[in-house]
Amino acid sequence: MNTDSQVRDRSSRGWIYLAFIIALLALIILGIVLVHPEAPGENAPGGTMLLTIADARTGSALDGADIYVDGGFAGATSDANGTGTLFVSGIQPVPHTIRVTYAGYRPFLETVTTPGESTVNISLSDSPLVSLTPENNNRHALNIVFVPSSTYFRTSDDSVVSTNAYTENETQFRDDVTRIINDTFDNLGSVTDPAVPLPQDYQDRLNFYYYFDPTDPANAFSGCAGTVPGQYWDNVTFSDLTVILYPLYDGWYINASDQPAGCYENDGPGHKLMKIPANRENLAFHESGHGLYGLVDTYCGDTEYFENDPYPNVWSTKEQCIASAAASNRDPSECREIQSDPGDPAPCVKNFWRWDPDPDIMKTGGDGTFGAASTQRIAYVLNITGEEGSQ
Amino acid sequence: MKTKRVLYCCVCLAVLIGFGVLAAAPAAPEYEKVLEVTMKYGNGQYSVISEEITYGTPPDLAVLSGPIKGVVADASESELESFFLSDPGVATGEIASGPSPGSVAPFTEYESSGELDLNLPVSAGMQTLSLYDTRTGTLLFSSDLSPAFTTFCLGYPKDPDCLARATGPSRTTNLPGTLLVPAGLLAAALPAVGGIIYLAKRVRVPQLLPAAKQTVLIVDDSPDILDVVSSSLSKDGYRCITAPGGNECLAILAEQKPDVILLDVIMAPLDGWSTLRQIKKNPATKSIPVLMLTGNRLTARDAKDYHICIEDYIQKPFREEEVCEAIEQILARKKVVRESLALAGKAGVDREKFCRLAALSTRISADKKIIRLLQKPDKETGMARPPDPETKDVISDMIRTTHANEIQLEELKSEIFVAFTKKGFVPPSW
Fold it and tell me: Phi and psi at residue B63, in whole multiples of 5°?
């Protein structure tokens, strides 16, 4: 038998449940609005704009292209309204910026004014950027981009020679790039100190691309590290290291007027550049030692020395070098000042010390190995590359 | 019992809605952006050529190394991001010496001047970029990033980072799908909050915050002056902070960033000129306009040493309106520059050129005032200043410089006028 208070309780519970169902519906609508806060609403006042996206070369419609109006996501093209199209409503008669992105194509940016341009046809061009590791989903990996050079160097007459070995043969370029990646960048285990473990998945922490625009190649012999194509830095903002690859360094050192075979130049984050020849692939170890891992030359010469933090491979005082060697279980007597080899006609001494054994890749330019100090630095960079905090 | 059921309902709803909204979300849009800063360097000096925000992915800053430290900070000067660089203009190369293992012939190129490019990740809260030399502790470069954001947001007002900057100083990230998580959390939190409100049987009415006021920091060792000036400015709608000396002023500036500083010259132990030096040395405060306030005559030496650091100079005794007008003018000029800079970007005017125009305009106005003060008869005696050689030299130097600046200003003005009118924009008036 129900008492009055039980009936009141049930009635009150009913109202509470009803209130929550209404709240639930309201919140689902709110959630949808919040998920698409920037999309012009279907019922928003203003006109409608029809965007059609197609491949510039073939003219075929592109479905799944993401479209942004004034910076807000407006939707993706689909065949629901006709192939490669998207209707955007709520468009006011003022200039609007349209951004279109589609994998494998150059991003598109343009300002249009409605209602003058209520139908906008956009053609997307193939991107010159090709991923060599598309299956690698590690978005924190370091990005290394190879660019072909249209020049090589000949020591017999100290000349820079034009070549179409790569510009007319993308397959040859791609094969050379792949070989160098496999033999050097992804083969660190063969040249690093086994006592200092690298991350087991270190190859997954490196993403490789190449940038192939046969009409606008790089020039490996314009400046020490070369010059990239005119539009390269605009198209590639994310590179952690750009590698200009040229097909041949013909001959060996003859005199001081020879151009360098390999070189690294840092012009700021996103603008780190090195060059190497395809026929001396071991130089990639040395130059990427600079470019990717921040290692310093250990030969004696007119080059840049600084003590890295953390895990330097050269030290500005003997005491610090000894302390580091001891901390790494090395014999402190291995600490030696950077100086030229005995018998060198141009003796040279630098106020920097090192303890990595010879032959050291950072001294020889490619032969030998990375000692424990250099390997510690390499392992450090590869470890922080995998961290969530990195880009 | 009933209370428990209501609570269970709230929790279940929160979980369900949160999951529902997140699961229903479409593929995440991509809003990642890069700030591209191009700098010119030479003789140890760095200056900005361009700062532009574009859509794209930035490089990994964490793996960089070198003796130069870069710091990106927010409006409260908290560090958002830091990175390292090696010295620019150094290219180290190797010449192949032979097929067998051996030493290489080193090859190094040094460029004493050139361009340095920085690609940095964008976050809504970023305000300044500074570069320091860690070997000497020297500040090499500091720049306000707001104009780059203003220009970008003119073209992309619905970008989440632009919306975040427009609605407040919250720090957002540019990770894809950023909005989905707060949307899910918000949707989940609302019924829970609703339940709590229901149980508490009370509703809080949100209070509207008053519009932000412009802040003036008044620095003077006279409590009377502090009192008079702050009550006069408060009546005009300014928020006033007072400091009884130079050290207190610097302590306040470490915590807050006023829109303008009113600075007395004669104070102890740290006088106004020394305080001014500290303010202008600090990248976080150097852009704050400073108005000097003093009972003393402006000397030729002070004018020569400090005229480029000050926006105006007022002599005591002064009328209250005189101070208000001077502050109003300074802030109005700041506003015009800020607003016009965004348009200048759209009109294709080089940023450095536009900033040069703004700086010249400010400089000419302040220098003319200082020249008048140097030429002014003594307030007490009414006599003209004796033409001592130093004052004479400083005045003629300043007149010459001002004249040259005016010619340059006119050239820049006409160039920028053409660019603005071509785009249908109203040219800035100053």
Answer: -95, 0
* C-alpha atoms less than 13 angstroms from C-alpha of B74 in its C-beta half-sphere: 13
What is d(CA B141, CA B138) in angstroms, rounded to the nearest whole number? 9
Query: Do residues A100 and A192 both lie within one domain?
Result: no
pLDDT band at B1 (very low <50, low <70, confident <90, very high): very low
Among B94, B120, B185, most A C-beta atoms within 10 A, so best to mutate, is B94
- Structure token pair of residue A344: 């060198």
Report pTM.
0.64
What pLDDT is attached to residue B13? Answer: 54
pLDDT band of B345, cuts 50, 70, 90: confident
Stretch B268-287: mean pLDDT: 84
**Tokens 């519970």 label which residue?**
A13
Q: Which amino acid makes up residue B24?
A: A
Going by pLDDT thresholds of 50, 70 and 90, the confidence category of residue B162 is: very high
Q: CB–CB of B13 and A306 under 8 A?
A: no
Could you tell me which residue, B148 or B190, shows the higher pLDDT? B148
Distance from the A43 Cα atom to the nearest Cα atom in chain B, whole angstroms: 18
> How high is the pLDDT of residue B137?
82
pLDDT of residue B229: 86
> If you measure CA to CA, which chain A residue comes closest to B33?
A237
Nearest to B56 among A237, A252, A293 (CB): A237
Complex prediction ipTM: 0.85
% helix, strand, coil for chain B, step of 5: 45, 20, 35
* Same domain for A287 and A301: no
Query: Residues B261-282: what's their mean pLDDT?
Result: 86
- Domain hosting A320: range is 294-385
**For residue A115, is the peptide bond before it cis, meaning its omega torsion is within 30 degrees of 0?**
yes
Count of A-B CB contacts under 8 Å? 266
Give me the number of domains chain A comprises: 3
Query: Which stretch, A262-266, B176-180, B386-390, has highest mean pLDDT?
Result: A262-266
List Cα–Cα distances, B283 to B124, B148, B362, in angstroms. 20, 18, 19
Question: Two tokens at B181?
Answer: 């998580």
Do residue A133 and residue A155 come from a single domain?
yes
B187–A34 C-beta distance less than 8 A: yes
Using the beta-carbon criterion (under 8 Å), do B16 and A24 form an inter-chain contact?
yes
**Same-domain pairing of A313 and A213:** no
Give the pLDDT score at B16.
Answer: 52
CB B244 within 8 A of CB B221: yes
Quick one: tokens of B74?
Answer: 């927010």
Q: Are A55 and A192 contained in the same domain?
A: no
Q: How far is it, in rounded angstroms, from Cα A329 to Cα A320?
A: 14
Domain boundary among A101, A124, A147: A124
Evaluated on CA atoms B258, B262, B268, B274, the torsion sign reads positive
Do residues A284 and A309 both lie within one domain?
no
Mean pLDDT of chain B: 77
Cis peptide before B317 (omega within 30 of 0): yes
- Asked if pLDDT for residue B226 goes beyond 60, the answer is yes
- What is the rounded distance in angstroms from the CA atom of residue B24 to the CA atom of residue A28? 10
Q: What are the structural domains, with CATH classification, of chain B?
A: 2-28+177-200 (no CATH), 33-93+109-167 (2.60.40), 215-422 (3.40.50.2300)
- Structure-derived torsion over alpha carbons of residues A307, A312, A314, A318, reported in degrees to the nearest 10: 80
- How far is B169 from chain A, CA to nearest CA, in Å? 19
- Of A230, A264, A292, the one marking the end of a domain is A292
pLDDT tens digits, B78-89: 889 999 998 898
Out of A285-299, B191-205, B223-237, B240-254, least confident range: B191-205
* Residue A225 CB contacts under 8 Å (≥ 6 apart), including other chains: A244, A263, A264, A265, A273, A274, A275, B91, B93
Rounded distance, CA A41 to CA A88, Å? 9
Which residues in chain A land under pLDDT 50? 1-8, 33-43, 388-391
